[in-house]
Write a structure and sequence with these properties.
heterodimer; A: alpha/beta; Aminopeptidase; OB fold (Dihydrolipoamide Acetyltransferase, E2P); 2 domains; 5-stranded antiparallel β-sheet; 6 helices; globular; B: alpha/beta; 13-stranded mixed β-sheet; 7 helices; 17 strands
Chain lengths: ~300, ~325
């Protein structure tokens, strides 16, 4: 294992800002794995720490195939993590909206540039990322519909779902999009949580990466057979929206199968306790995403349903 | 006439309402021209608040001169203004990256779509921003090169010091201005002053510009002050960016708008802990400093200023 500094910048009154990477194996730039880019992506950091531990073990046991170099960066934004702020500490910009970066630009553009110089040119890029709305997900792989990445390759993670989403204008400045511009097959890995650790889904994510590396012949690891991911386009997800604002009382969990007509959540009057609205499942599906904050706004997709696996 | 253009209930005993004030002549006729003044998309940019007030005050003094419709939207992001937040509180989203919105979408997508519906069809729209909280800007209008043919002639009549025509960017396609310009409603994006503050002098300059344009458009038949001739920059190489080479505290040595010679000192980045000068920031060429850092603390890369080349400014 080669632990090295990918990018650093001197702070005024804080310790130096450092982006640290862990490199395993030697040879071609095969896979780069990036964890948190926002300060609240604790689960994404945790997944990478588990991966680093696993890869150390594999390397010690001689189970990394010759000619493959695998880089893991647990966090590209430790400054924001340490002050528990989602975006950049001083100007609130999002590093994951600054790629490919600019070396003479503003601070987060420079960070993106410094990091991207190190992580571009890999055959595959895997980013643990989070959704902008608070909620729990069924772990899945996500990729963009216009990109360089192949859905069939995404199936090699062995997660139940591969979700293909439409590219929106703001995507053009994300790491995933820019990896693909430079011909890296990029995949975003969503685990169940963001700001709190869910050990089971972190374990599932680590296993998914192991499956992928094993099926690419990069590590010696006995990946289980059989699981074939279902490919779903994001417009096929059924959005269950609130009509009222209020206290959100979920009646199902992410991953749970639901039947047509089943109550999914109540929206409760925050002063008087009566139920303002009950949300029902229009079809038999699986709860793919469930809002996890105690309050909700009207017109908000608090639950997303997906086809049963 | 105050009208609510979007309303949605918040979780605890409050409604989010976006409101506008329509000022029209007493004897309205069909096909009158309409100008819309929009501000507050970024909740910590307040320069437009004074413009909204002063424009109405001056219209009321000579209401008989009004011959068209003036729509005033002072607070597109009321929750952000209330909480001194650039984006939309609770969502951590930049409202100016949600346009054109979706009437069937999430709460804010719905609000944004209602705003689009209401403003669309105006004959001219001013989208007034301050700079962010870190920088001060001279009054300027920024125009996407895709829309320059329509917008530059309007901007020239608006009493700003600078018209900055910039390159197209995919990311900017989600802005209020792009979305409306794209459907044929001309929007001029004004940047002036600094975040969280009101610079009355700039506000008065802008109100003069709006009256001048209203007169040109046939919305106002009273007096309008003459306007200044703006510098127009169309070439990305006209502008030099001054980014901090190190983190520290920036102490400016010159005023905003200063005309500088190459090598002249703009300011110093200092280290208060050790009492040392970390860097001396110098003008990279002759030019006018049209942006300067207002917030003193900088980290490596922080923008400290922008310089417009002397030959573009046209001064001796």
């Amino acid at each position: 294992m080669n632990k090295r500094i990918i990018y650093q910048m001197k702070g005024l009154y804080r310790d130096t800002f450092r982006v640290t990477g862990y490199e395993f194996g030697t040879g071609e730039k095969s896979v780069c794995i990036v964890g948190s880019s926002r300060g609240n992506e604790i689960q994404q950091l945790y997944c990478c720490s588990r991966l680093v531990k696993k890869m150390k073990q594999l390397e010690e046991e001689g189970r990394i195939a010759d000619g493959h170099r695998i880089l893991i960066i647990p966090s590209i934004n430790p400054y924001s993590m340490n002050i528990q702020k989602r975006f950049w500490s001083t100007d609130n910009t999002d590093i994951n909206r600054m790629f490919p970066g600019y070396d003479l630009g503003e601070t987060t553009q420079r960070i993106a540039d410094g990091v991207f110089r190190e992580i571009s040119g890999y055959q595959f890029g895997i980013q643990f990322t989070s959704f902008y709305m608070p909620g729990d997900f069924v772990p899945h792989v996500r990729l963009m519909d216009e990109g360089f990445s192949n859905p069939e390759t995404a199936k090699l993670f062995g997660l139940p779902y591969v979700v293909i989403r439409k590219v929106r204008p703001y995507d053009t400045a994300t790491l995933n999009y820019n990896w693909q511009v430079w011909e890296t097959q990029a995949f975003s890995l969503y685990t169940s949580t963001t700001s709190r650790i869910d050990q089971n889904s972190a374990g599932q994510a680590v296993l998914a990466v192991m499956n992928f590396l094993s099926r690419q012949g990069m590590i010696k690891y006995s990946a289980p057979d059989g699981l074939s991911s279902k490919i779903v386009h994001d417009e096929e997800l059924i959005l269950i929206k609130t009509a009222k604002s209020g206290i959100f009382e979920p009646l199902v969990k992410a991953g749970q199968e639901v039947e047509t007509g089943q109550p999914l959540a109540n929206i409760v009057n925050p002063y008087e306790g009566d139920i303002l609205e009950t949300l029902y499942a229009p079809f038999s599906r699986v709860a793919f995403f469930v809002h996890n904050e105690p309050l909700t706004y009207a017109n908000t997709a608090v639950i997303k349903l997906i086809q049963k696996y | 006439m105050i009208k609510t253009i979007a309303a949605i209930g918040l979780p605890v005993d409050e409604a989010l309402e976006i409101r506008k004030n329509r000022i029209a002549p007493e004897n309205s006729v069909d096909d009158m021209k309409r100008i819309s003044i929009v501000t507050g998309i970024h909740g910590d940019e307040l320069e437009g608040q004074y413009v909204c007030f002063e424009l109405q005050r001056r219209i009321e003094q000579h209401r008989e001169c009004l011959t068209g419709i003036v729509d005033i939207y002072p607070a597109m992001n009321p929750l952000g203004i209330d909480s001194i937040t650039r984006g939309i509180p609770a969502f951590d989203l930049d409202m100016n990256r949600l346009f054109p919105g979706d009437i069937d979408g999430s709460m804010m997508e719905y609000v944004v779509a209602r705003i689009m519906e209401d403003v669309a069809g105006s004959d001219c729209v001013f989208d007034i921003h301050a700079s962010n909280i870190y920088l001060t800007e001279i009054p300027q209008i920024r125009i996407n090169e895709l829309h320059q043919d329509t917008l530059v002639p309007l901007a020239e009549k608006s009493n700003v010091d600078l018209i900055w025509v910039h390159g197209a960017s995919t990311v900017l396609e989600s802005t209020f201005a792009y979305s409306l310009n794209n459907i044929g409603t001309p929007v001029l994006v004004v940047e002036m002053g600094v975040g969280m503050r009101i610079t009355k002098e700039y506000g008065d300059q802008m109100v003069d510009g709006i009256f001048h344009l209203m007169k040109e458009m046939g919305i106002w038949n009273g007096d309008a002050n003459p306007v200044r001739k703006p510098i127009i920059s169309r070439n990305p190489e006209d502008v030099s960016y001054l980014n901090a080479s190190v983190g520290g505290v920036f102490i400016p040595a010159v005023q905003h708008g200063a005309k500088l010679r190459k090598g002249e000192m703009i300011g110093r980045i200092v280290d208060p802990l050790c009492g040392k000068v970390l860097d001396e920031v110098q003008a990279p060429e002759d030019g006018m400093l049209f942006t300067i850092r207002d917030y003193p603390v900088v980290v490596e890369g922080s923008l400290m200023g922008r310089l417009l080349k002397k030959e573009v400014c046209g001064y001796e």
